[in-house]
User: Fold this.
Amino acid sequence: METTDFAKYLSAFLTKYLAGERNYSPNTILAYKDTFVQFITFMKEKKNIEVQKLTLECITKNVIIDFLDWIQENRHCSNATRNYRLAALRSFFCYMQYENPERMYEWQKILSIKVKRHEKQSINYLSTDGIKLILEQPDQSTGSGRRNLAMLALMYDSGARVQEIIDLTPSSVRLDNPSIVKLFGKGRKARIVPLQEEQTVFLNEYMQENHLLEPSANQYPLFSNSRKEKLTRAGVAYILNTYVALARKINPLIIPETISCHSLRHSKAMHLLQAGVNLVYIRDLLGHVSVQTTEVYARADSRQKREAFEKAYVDLNPNAAKTKIWEKDGNLLEWLKSLKK
Assistant:
């Protein structure tokens, strides 16, 4: 079977350009691949074009718009998900401008497709009491319970994304003071995150128990399942949700209805902000490219905003000002009281 030009360019885009030239992480490439799997499915179901007959000539701006509408109508995707799929497609057609300049005009028309506006969800985070209650739920008499406690405590303490936790190996952790963990974030960018000594107690015990401090275990998954394989995102989410449900039964007031793995990351950032830590340091901890991304926590923290406003408040009420002057002058205050007699 002859390979189509679309298949040739898409294969090079995913395997050579994203992985080689752009150094995108395997997870990002996988997400991009999912977009094109959905696009190929759409072309087959809605345009009656089988994948072996799908060529670049079949792809126009209107086709891409139809695809984006299709994933919203048939797959019930939000505007945010639609925009994410569009971002993956844009990346491909930016690439195509250089690889296939003969159809430059068509690629630029596709690149002109606008993103849809969507409401940004408020940051979902827990109080320190909420975090503490969740970490009290794992059964420390079992091996899986001790693993889960070490993992969730590390997720919160480091502010790590769930994939960053999944990808950790024992070589990424230094337990000697000062304790640190090396995380690999988006674009495989590495960052060093300091750890609290109190939290590393769980991690140290877990690693000793599972012989993960030995040199031969350096490249093993730090947190693994019963088959010694890396945990999955769904697996980590299941573990967290199990303890969230237990904690909610004990005190539903401090455990929000919706909690995800990312909520632990949000919680760490909010707690640091409330403790007065500079946004620049929080940015570095979270691995954000710009402090503008981190500013979302400052905008979300209503308590800190209120306290800042209260500190900056100047009382301009003339009557209140007079009262304060009288209160400071005892003789004047007594004389005014005597007028009532």
